[in-house]
Amino acid sequence: MPVDRPRVLVCDDSPLLRRVIVVLLTESGLNVVGEARDGVELIDRVAELRPDVVTLDVEMPRRNGLEALRELMRVRPTPVVMVSTLTGSGSAASVAALAAGASSSASATSSTASRSRACRRSSGTPRRGRCPRAPTGSRASSTCAAASSPS
Predict the structure, then answer these.
(1) Neighbour-count burial of 94, counting CB atoms closer than 10 A to its CB (0-12 exposed, 13-18 middle, 19+ buried)
(2) pLDDT tens digits for 20-59?
(3) How many domains are there within the chain?
(4) For a pLDDT cut of 70, what percent of the chain falls above it?
(5) Domain range holding 71?
(6) Quick check: helix, strand or coil at residue 61?
(7) In a domain, 72, yes or no
């Protein structure tokens, strides 16, 4: 029986980092359904796309990630994984994000498997086995397998 892939919305002001996160999550077997450039756009995109989980940067123009997180939890509570260079383990930004309702945080410099695990846990959709359409032994297959294993 196939397991539904978590639907992820990626929010980051950097087009390069958005692209990197999208590629890494997609290679890990997650279903990236959309992107947002800042916290203002995030609220509209979440209402439109209804993702299972959101990845969210901290520092962005117009509305930063922590402000957007508070607004999101008020209007449409959605699991959020904070992904930023500012959200390393135990950082002030991580603590503030978790207090505001984030499900998890991962450093933007953390491994693909770490970010994938955070998204899967936050969405409540476990994934077992290799990634769909990923050849056995491929980087994507290995990453998905690592993301699927319990920590």
Answers:
(1) buried
(2) 999 999 999 999 999 999 999 999 999 999 999 999 988 8
(3) 1
(4) 64
(5) 7-148
(6) coil
(7) yes
CB 11 within 8 A of CB 32: no
> How much is the pTM?
0.68
Query: 13 is written with which tokens?
Result: 């002001």
Is 134 contained in some domain?
A: yes
The C-alpha atoms of residue 120 and residue 76 are separated, in whole angstroms, by: 19
Is 2 contained in some domain?
no
Closest to 110 measured CA to CA, from 27, 22, 21: 21
**Could you give the CA distance from residue 67 to residue 49 in angstroms, rounded to a whole number?**
20
At 80-109, the pLDDT tens digits run: 988 876 555 556 777 777 788 787 777 665
Residue type, 106: A
CB 45 within 8 A of CB 37: no
Half-sphere exposure of 45 (CA within 13 A, CB side): 24
